[in-house]
Design brief:
It contains 26 helices and two strands. The protein has a two-stranded antiparallel ribbon.
Length: 634
């Protein structure tokens, strides 16, 4: 197993090194092939790891692979070591599996309609491979310090990828915004790690969680869990640290799919699931996780109802679905949340990649008001997008139905849940059906807009077949829910955990969830697949409220006024009176003094008379002679 884990990690790193060092010399097209092959081979190694873990007895499904000692200082030890257990194995499969398909898709997306490669083609694939490597370090790390390395790595790579087209100001701003907001979470994770070591004198997961199970450090559990929550909320874009994710749509669509479907945004959910022994001893923190998740799920769904940019609709949908996952881990249904993380990776990747095909087909057009009538021109993409939208809404028997129902059931039935939590998720499910099929209708139904014929081109096979494979997974990915829970169970009970067990999705809550989903989809089609007169009248009647929701409740504007504006004022003051006059003036005194001294010495000693220079030489020689007489005793 050590060999397969090493290969799964090393191959994306080697792909990055090839693209960064040799890709521009060998030929840029080869970078896409090499990067895709590296992640595809990493997925093959991940399958071998999963097979190895599955044949082990449940009590032995925890393998630590130590590569080398890294940081050692007194009692502090943080080796380069990886933990292979059912939870990390699931994440390994999702990251490499979905990631490899997105890489293949990107080989077609990063070309124009004439087949010309993007100028930064090899740089793009280098960052994609480095991103996958960093994510694998994050999910396989066996200690908090190594986890921080992967955590920071995905943050830096997300900046490079979101701001990939850095010559566009909006892309540069979006990348900086994502980096800054995630840095807030990084501070939370760093402080949590300090507090963990201060409390337990160790940072490895096994050692810390065994101490927690033994009742040690009970007074610090809530503080540690809340600090970890800050990190998770920033990385998984939960309210109020969600503002970076919609703007991140400025990056290339494969980046949106990779970051917002299967990898970076799910890191927060993974962090809470991995540290579940801590959260199970911090009920206040778990309540905070569930509350934040419910708020994020509902308010992101309302914003998605009003967006006109296709990718931003899918982005707010990601926010909402991550809210479901947070509710799941907040009520103790850790396995259900990881299950939804997996199914969400399938159908959300289809939505992003399908949207990318539409945008590529229309030469960069992203406004749904300028689309319409694409069903006949992109029939395969239409059906894939519609199926993924239905799975996202929780349509019965699609993958999203099974995973979302487990979370909704836990929200109602868990000792940590409540009718309010469960009811809010059902309401959000209805809204999901409406806004997803609003997007389907505006994009694919109705009559073709005149502008939508701009750049009418076919779809490259490298872009289409990954979408088809992911669509199949979006359909069937939910059926093995019982086997998935059984496989994951050891990771949730190994350190004395007591995860919430959810009944099979055949009860009254499942029926209610399915009915709500179907009703939402029906309302979305009724309102937007026809003449759309009702939505127009409704929008006019709501007036300012509709604009408030469309603007994301002005949270960005609030941050700009309360946080950014004072910082800008301080920066202006610092760069003006403080920097230029006070600091700059003080520093300029030294060269001014040196110039004055030079001028005085020049006029005093450089007179131009030979007798003066001879006298100076004689005086110097006399001083040297006196030194030797008194120093050496001549």
């Amino acid at each position: 197993m050590t060999t397969w884990v090493t290969l799964a990690l090393a191959l994306p790193l080697l792909g990055f090194l090839y693209c960064a060092l040799f890709g521009w010399r060998v030929g840029r097209a080869a970078s896409g092939v090499a990067a895709s092959a590296a992640v595809g081979a990493s997925f093959g190694a991940a399958l071998a790891v999963a097979a190895g873990v599955s044949v082990l007895p449940e009590s032995e499904r925890f393998v630590t692979i130590t590569i080398a000692s890294w940081l050692t200082a007194g009692s502090f030890i943080a080796p380069i070591a990886f933990l292979v257990d059912p939870l990390s194995t699931v994440m390994l499969l999702v990251v490499t599996g979905v990631g490899s398909l997105i890489h293949v898709y990107a080989t077609g997306y990063m070309r124009d309609h004439h087949g010309h490669l993007d100028l930064g083609y090899n740089r793009f694939f280098a960052f994609l491979n480095l991103f996958v490597f960093s994510m694998l370090v994050l999910v396989l790390a066996n200690n908090f310090v190594l986890l921080m390395v992967g955590w920071g790595g995905v943050g830096v790579c997300s900046y490079f990828l979101i701001a990939f087209w850095f010559d566009k100001p909006e892309n540069a701003r979006a990348g900086s915004k994502a980096f800054i907001v995630n840095a807030i979470g990084d501070v939370g994770l760093l402080l949590a790690c300090f507090l963990i070591f201060w409390t337990f004198r160790k940072v490895d997961f096994d050692g810390v969680f065994r101490e927690v199970a033994a009742g040690q450090g009970s007074g610090a559990m809530t503080n540690i869990a809340l600090l970890l929550l800050i990190a998770a909320a920033a990385k998984s874009a939960q309210f109020p640290l969600h503002v970076w994710l919609p703007d991140a749509m400025a990056g290339p669509t494969p980046v949106s799919a990779l970051i917002h479907a299967a990898t970076m945004v799910t890191a927060g959910v993974y962090l809470i699931a991995r540290t579940h022994p801590i959260y199970e001893h911090a009920p206040l923190a778990m309540a905070a996780v569930a509350s934040i998740g419910a708020v994020t799920a509902f308010f992101a769904a309302t914003i998605a109802l009003t967006q006109t940019n296709l990718k931003r609709v899918v982005a707010y949908s990601t926010l909402s679905q991550l809210g479901y996952m947070f509710v799941g881990v907040g009520v103790g249904a850790f396995g259900a949340s990881i299950f939804h993380l997996m199914t969400h990776a399938f159908f959300k990747a289809v939505l992003f990649l399908g949207a990318g095909i539409v945008i590529h087909h229309l030469a960069g057009q992203e406004d749904m008001r300028q689309m319409g009538g694409l069903r006949s021109r992109l029939p395969v993409v239409y059906w894939c997008f519609a199926i993924a939208a239905a799975a996202n809404a929780g349509f019965p028997l699609l993958s999203g139905f099974f995973s979302k129902d487990e979370i909704v059931s836990a929200a109602f039935l868990s000792p940590h849940g409540s009718a309010i939590l469960g009811g809010s998720l059902l309401l959000t499910s209805a809204l999901t059906g409406i806004y997803m099929f609003r997007a389907v209708s505006l994009t694919f139904h109705g009559t073709s807009n005149a502008h939508s014929h701009t750049g009418d081109h076919g779809v490259a096979g490298s872009m289409l077949w990954p979408v088809l494979l992911l669509t199949v997974l979006a359909v069937v990915g939910g059926f093995p829910y019982a086997q998935f829970g059984k496989f994951l169970h050891p990771s949730l009970t190994h350190w004395g955990g007591h995860p919430v067990e959810v009944a099979n999705p055949v009860g009254s809550i499942a029926i209610a969830s399915g009915i709500v989903s179907i009703a939402g989809i029906a309302v979305g089609l009724w309102l937007y697949a026809g003449d759309r007169a009702i939505p127009r009248r409704l929008g006019r009647s709501l007036g300012g409220l509709a604009e408030t929701v469309r603007a994301g409740y002005y949270i960005d504007a609030f941050y700009g006024a309360v946080l950014l504006a004072p910082v800008r004022v301080i920066a202006l003051i610092s760069s003006g009176p403080v920097d230029n006059f006070l600091i700059g003036g003080f520093v300029s005194l030294f060269p001014a003094f040196a110039r004055w001294m030079g001028s005085e010495f020049r006029h005093t000693f450089q007179t131009g008379y030979v007798r003066h220079y001879a006298a100076a030489i004689f005086a110097g020689a006399a001083l040297i002679a006196i030194f030797f007489v008194y120093r050496i005793g001549i």
